[in-house]
Amino acid sequence: MDHWFTRNIVEPGKLPLLLALSSFVLTFLATRTVTRLIRAGRGPFRDVTTGGVHIHHVVPGVVLTLVGGFGSIGARGQVAAAVCALLFGIGAGLVLDEFALILHLADVYWTEQGRKSVEAVVLTTALVALVLGGSSPLGVDSLTPEERRDRANVLLTVGTNLLFVVVALLKGKFRTAVIGALVPFVALVGALRLARPDSPWARRAYRRRPRARARAGLRAYRHDRRWAGLTRRFQGVVGGFPDHAPAPDGRVPPPSGGDGGPSGGKGDPSGGKGDPSGGDGSPP
């Protein structure tokens, strides 16, 4: 085990990346645990406020990310690089835990839109793990040393894989495209399969092809029916289940307390207006 760790992590210089990934995941899990305890009114944890302003943990997260990122540029020695990697991972974990807040510019932590934070963390973890495992963007790692010296082969490989990624994006398959940037075969599958019915590709390419449009809608429906529930349960177990949406008569259930409460923190179900449209059910 020690020999494997030295050969695959230490010698290639991937130890800082491993430390950053580990601190990133642990920070996210610890933060979600604390916010769930605050939400339930348990434990010694409380919201941080100053001057009546609720301080979200994305604020110290941004500071730590900047310190770790800039520090790693000028770090000399393994110890300094390891410390900067830990700081960067902790800061990134705090920032992406509130990714939905940054995206919507509203406190949607415990709403349906807040699930996007969990999705961003899971996707980031998967991508960094792939890089840690040896994958390189756009299939460059699949080239032999001789092929890498041939600029034409490099440009052809990168350009082809980039084309697959772009097509997958246009077909509304964001997760497939992102993962496909590191695993080209995934992008190829996403590029060849039918587009999502609400994607730019479908709106243009299927405009005069009713059969293709119908098949795309049916496939998306079957996919969402099969995977959306499982995805939502996973997100709920990892990051906490969102507050209930407002009732048809406009009444909102009482807040469950914690991390913001009625004053506008993360326990306020009205912060994100309870819009249930956050889960788009896009294919992985």
TrEMBL record:
Keywords: Membrane, Transmembrane, Transmembrane helix. Residues 238-284 are annotated as: Disordered. The chain crosses the membrane at residues 54-73, 80-106, 118-140, 152-170, 176-195. The keyword Metal-binding does not apply. Residues 257-284 have a biased composition (Gly residues). The keyword Ion transport does not apply. This is Integral membrane protein. It comes from Streptomyces roseolilacinus.
